[in-house]
Amino acid sequence: MREELIERFLKFAVGIYKLEKTLCKTYSGRHVYGQLFRSGTSSGANYDEATAAESKQDFIHKMQVSLKELRETYFWLRFIKMAEMISDKETILLNLLQENKELLNIIGKAVSTSKINKTKS
Prior knowledge:
CATH architecture: Up-down Bundle
Helix content: over 70%
Number of strands: 0
């Protein structure tokens, strides 16, 4: 499961990377892309770090950081869609939005389960 999820995060980050050519043609596009790139690529790196956590509390903290970055990424992807910075018909944007939702659900569930398990210990 860990390796599969890391692979999904990597593919997600590559998908964001591929938006650079489309978004970076204007000042506002560069700004939005910079925000998206930072949050979208760091979510996977933080998940990877969480899997090597030193304690349950460290794991929860790093997973919460990953979740926070995923939420910010979702905001920017929705902004791009709403501002029509990329065509609605652009499959990559729709795929990124869908994958972002799924990763949010997975990481969110892992955080809540970890918190419950921590209080039981």
